[in-house]
Specification:
Layout lengths: L1 H11 L3 E6 L4 H10 L4 E6 L6 H15 L4 E4 L9 H23 L8 E6 L12 H19 L1 H4 L1 E8 L20 H5 L7 H14 L5 E5 L2 E4 L4
Parallel strand pairs: 1-2, 3-4, 4-5, 5-6
Antiparallel strand pairs: 6-7
Helix pairs in contact: 1-2, 1-8, 3-4, 4-5
Keywords: NAD, Oxidoreductase
GO molecular function, one term: alcohol dehydrogenase (NAD+) activity
Protein name: Alcohol dehydrogenase
Length: 231
């Protein structure tokens, strides 16, 4: 989803696209740069589980270079309920820490210009896959955090919305572990349901970015983009 979304973003023509990831993929960076030579694509190695201070240091490097950053997408995620602590660290704590770090540069109470945060959550945040309760709960936590960010926009000047993909054909869902092995065939059973491609998901992601609706809970499922009403 991340790579295909990056492709769609580059096509839309921002001035810069900065990618943060644990794995350096020069071929992907070269491909993205070639898609639209007017967009400067850069990469920095980053693991969302590092301490908050390290994230702030990296963001300072990026802000010093670009001066302004308009949109932060938190997209790191793992699906493996055998890795309980790492699932929570990547899917939830990482999202919180990266968001907290960028507030040093965006928060209007510090003279910042504000900004926009798009958090990739999941439909499991409001409709859990019960065989992977740790993953589902981590996404529910990220969704709740995003909803709170949106309601704090009047205080911080930072708006937020969530991207909630349904079952998407990615390496994430080809094979994964259920909690306490309650369902060894969970990946196989999941893929028996209707799915969408990563390209469909990415195209709708960009539509959500263009809509730029604070507090929106976007459901990206079966090639469609729909807002979810949350009470």
């Amino acid at each position: 989803i991340g790579l295909d979304t990056s492709r769609e973003i580059v096509k839309s023509g921002p001035k810069n696209l900065v990618l943060l990831d644990r794995i350096d993929n020069p071929a992907a960076i070269a491909e993205l740069s070639a898609l639209n030579p007017k967009v400067t694509v850069t990469f920095y190695p980053y693991d969302v589980t590092v301490p908050l201070a390290e994230t702030k240091k990296l963001l300072k490097t990026i802000f010093d270079k670009l001066k302004t950053v308009d949109l932060l997408i938190n997209g790191a995620g793992i699906l493996d309920d055998h890795q309980i602590e790492r699932t929570i660290a990547v899917n939830f704590t990482g999202t919180v820490n990266t968001t907290t770090a960028i507030m040093d540069f965006w928060d209007k109470r510090n003279g910042g210009p504000g900004g926009v945060i798009a958090n990739i959550c999941s439909v499991t945040g409001f409709n859990s896959i019960y065989q992977v309760p740790v993953y589902s709960a981590s996404k529910a936590a990220a969704l709740s955090f995003t909803n709170s960010l949106a309601r704090l926009a009047s205080v911080t000047g930072v708006t937020a919305y969530s991207i909630n993909p349904g079952i998407t054909k990615t390496v994430l869902v080809h094979k994964f572990n259920s909690w306490l092995n309650v369902e060894p065939r969970v990946a196989e059973l999941l893929l028996e349901h209707p799915t969408q491609t990563t390209v469909q998901c990415a195209q709708n992601f960009v539509k959500a970015i263009e809509a730029n609706q604070n507090g929106a809970i976007w459901k990206l499922d079966l090639g469609r983009l729909n807002p979810i009403e949350w009470t």
